[in-house]
Amino acid sequence: MGDPSDLRFVPSSCTTIDWIKVPEASKQLLLKGWGTYYSESDTESDSDSKGSFKKRPLPATIGDLAKMFHESKFFGYMRADLCTLLLDISEFGLAKPLPTATFGLPVGPRFYMKYLEQIWFILFVPGSRDGISGYSPDIPYSDDWFEDTGIARDKALAEDYDAKLCKEVSRIGTLGVVAGKKVAGWVASTLESDLELAQMAEAIMGLPANHPARVQMIQGVFRSRRSSQ
Known about the structure:
alpha+beta; two-stranded antiparallel sheet
């Protein structure tokens, strides 16, 4: 149960991940949560043959990583361990870019997904834990949301925004997110703050059901859902 995130655009799909340097706990989390998939039987002659569960290897690139998250509970379900996984990939798994003579800061690998009424993104900052996440304004519902035309429209929106994101990040890095909670016009937050929020939420949910802090948080979630409908 739950709403999945659907991959829409990966502009930096070939950026490789060095899993040797990533902490073991994060690697195991990825394999446990996203490393198994169901495959239909390859035997066409046997209509009664059943498929089987197969295991994926650790993804070689950011593009492969994004494909693992496709059609899974990702955005909207950013637990503390998932935030830590993304931070570990950013700091340990992605090589810090070498200084160049070109003007502007390097823009790290990123990917865009559709979750509920928005396009969401993750931007890694290789060699550090300064990555960010963010999302677009609400996208009006249309009958072709899940059809090729709707998917193409989502991708075009992500591509258009990505150019603006690259321009801002190459100019000031992710400082705009820290200062104003926005980047290139979309709401955004640092992955570190996402982690802190997830840790706080998990701590509160561990309290007794009638604890004021837990009751207040749950009421806030329901108010947020009603206001977004």
